Amino acid sequence: xxxxxxxxxxxxxxxxxSANSKLSAPxxxxxxxxxxxxxxxxxxxxxxHYKDREVIVTE
Length: 59
Prior knowledge:
Blueprint: H1 10-18, E1 29-30, E2 37-38, E3 49-50, E4 53-54
Antiparallel strand pairs: 1-2, 3-4
């Protein structure tokens, strides 16, 4: 089995580990009632509708 001759530096270790920790923007969809952006499968925070019915009463 191959064994490394020297220890890897801290920068090489951290850059390798940080390659998979990139944040991505959450998915967005458009509310069919008011047209505001919202998260998919969530109640619209603007008008309170979900699946063509009013779930939360908003003013």
